[in-house]
Write a structure and sequence with these properties.
Radius of gyration of chain A: 25 Å
Number of strands of chain A: 5
Number of helices of chain A: 20
Distance between the termini of chain A: 55 Å
Oligomer: heterodimer
Radius of gyration of chain B: 23 Å
Structural class of chain B: alpha/beta
CATH superfamily of the largest domain in chain B: P-loop containing nucleotide triphosphate hydrolases
CATH topology of the largest domain in chain B: Rossmann fold
CATH topology of the largest domain in chain A: Rossmann fold
Structural class of chain A: mainly alpha
Order of helices and strands of chain B: HHEHEHEHEHEHEHHEHHHHHH
Distance between the termini of chain B: 62 Å
Helix content of chain A: 55-70%
Strand content of chain B: 5-15%
CATH class of the largest domain in chain B: Alpha Beta
Shape of chain A: flat
Number of domains of chain A: 4
Strand content of chain A: 5-15%
Shape of chain B: globular
Largest sheet of chain A: 5 strands, parallel
CATH architecture of the largest domain in chain B: 3-Layer(aba) Sandwich
CATH class of the largest domain in chain A: Alpha Beta
CATH superfamily of the largest domain in chain A: P-loop containing nucleotide triphosphate hydrolases
Number of strands of chain B: 7
Amino acid sequence: MSTLFIEKYKPKSLSEYLDQKEATEKFNTWLKKFIKGETSKPALLFGPSGSGKTLLVELEAKELGFELVKIDPVSISSFEELCRALSSTLTSTSLFGSQGKIILIDEVEGLRSLFPRFISFLIHVIEKSKYPIVLIANNAYALGLRDIRLKSETIKFRRIPKPTILHYLKRVVQLEGGHVDNKILNAIAENAKGDVRAALNDLQSILLYKTQIHARDIKIDVFAAINKLLRAKSFEEGLRVFEELEIDYPLLFQWVAENLPLIYNEPRGLVMAYEKLSKADIFLGRIKKEGNWSLLKYFFDLMFGTVAFVSVGKRKKFIPFKFPTYLKKISSSRKDRGEEKELVAKISSKCHVSSKKVISEYLPFIKLLVQKQSKYRKEVINYLSLGRDEVKKLIHLS
Amino acid sequence: MSANGIWTEKYRPQTLKEITDQEETVERLKRFVATKSIPHMLFAGPPGTGKTTAAICLAKELFGPGSFRSNFIELNASDERGIETIRTRVKDFARTSPIGEFPYKIICLDEADNLTSDAQQALRRTMEIFSHNCRFILICNYSSKIIEPIQSRCAIFRFQRISEEKIKERLLYIAEKEKVSISGKGLDAIVYITEGDLRRAINLLQTSAALNEEITEEIVFKVAGRAHPAEIRKMLTLSLEGKFKEARDTLYNLMTRYGVSASDILQQVHREILNMDIEEERKTALLDYVGEVDFRLSEGAHPDVQLSALLAKFSLFGAV
């Protein structure tokens, strides 16, 4: 039998949808408002994995007879493709002649870490959309989602309560015609920590292979996690620690990088560790450039290898790690370069240089010239005939 | 001189003879203007040496101020999307005959070395098709990147890197006209950073002047987003002494507070190591690794990590 339970027992309609009452109501209110034209905000659904975010949207679309256009990191290989896909779907009418459509952008955090300009692009296009846009993220308060969060209707999904999961598991067992001890079901439900998908996967593996389930302990404490990573004895263990973490790997990477000098008190170890990390970073760069996700495994290998297996001069005791300072510094200064095309073209023709040169050489320079304190502010604005918005854009360039 | 906000435009030479430090090339160009017959031309040389200016001046002198606009077009190979767009724009432009007595229109294609060799083949055909009423001026940094069939159809003009004295002379001239004061060290800093690129030098002069009464060394480095060489030297010394954490703090500071880009830092590191007073063999080993990191910077995703790796490696060099 090859069908996954999570596919097989996926609710077919809203009536089968589990226990997310508040979120469902909020979502319905938002959708109605959007359709009536009372709001143009997108909805930002957030909450733990397996709490039914994507599912709710799918079921709603089905119920209303709307087409559902899904965009997620798996289906997109380049930023250009993403922009094209989004822009065209925002304005085109539905392919299937259905009443309307919902645009679902899944794993917003993933898209953002892949394409740094994604969020600013998104903010730029959502206002133009004729159709409701639903964004899905695990953590709406993650680094970098602030701007989009403020422009969205946020809808929080909670962990599904244990009794609900238990009840659901029992029904699945019944439908499968199998028998599983109540104690075990209870343990699965407990262990799932509100994640229905995880519970179903565990149940299936028990029914099929009679295996033991592994504890799914959720750690949010990065300090403890990195210390654990450092003590990992095998790749498998390292990977497991990582999977249990609720932070994404670019962040973990930054943590590891920041703290290497604390981990190694001997230069040779430090150099070896940095060498590995540097190579891991090269893989990450290639993944970003080419969208080749199959390379991600090497990134992980090298990152875990760095902290777990470079043992020269490694400190033995628990280490009080530091928040990545570099990350902290740039997160406050990073801005976008998305929508400056017209501005660039203008400067390019006035100053007889290519757009490339405008971006690399002229923007930073003109930015300084149009600041309030600048002596030449007026002349420059006049000469380039810059509008007020353009001046603003320039000043806020990073 | 027109009242004009951007100095590189305001002080852009209007005639060939005003162009800084390219006497020989300009002399040849003037002869072409005098005979009223020009071939296709290829202007090659480093950025900021007056290639585009020379093309514009040439056209102005040939056509006169009245019909210059309708007979001269500037295209940029790195902007126009592919050779097809260039071809279409050339076709549209070449459809009408030139206005005035000069029998050709002039098409100036900047950054021609950005075209792939296939695109250049297509360009060569276009040049031939329209040669009855158009002349091309191709501009590039490296003439060797232009395919031979095109080179052989063009008169080649080489633009030299402008000498330090001439750059200083020009900057001082502008500073005087604009009534800004600049210290000797400030002037040196601009020359150090811009490495013979007059356009960048003038841009930097204006930005420094915009925000400050007097242009000093500190202000120039800050405005340029470049590290003061002393900061780079400090970072290198710290890492070679094995003080990795302090070295990395200096690095982070340069990157975040002053916004110096990773590749700029690496370029400066390279320059500093070349000037360091250490054995040639060790120097080579350090530079070898700088090269490796430069490559990794372009491949990787986190420049801070790559540069930190460099500093860590250097701490080992010092320890041995």
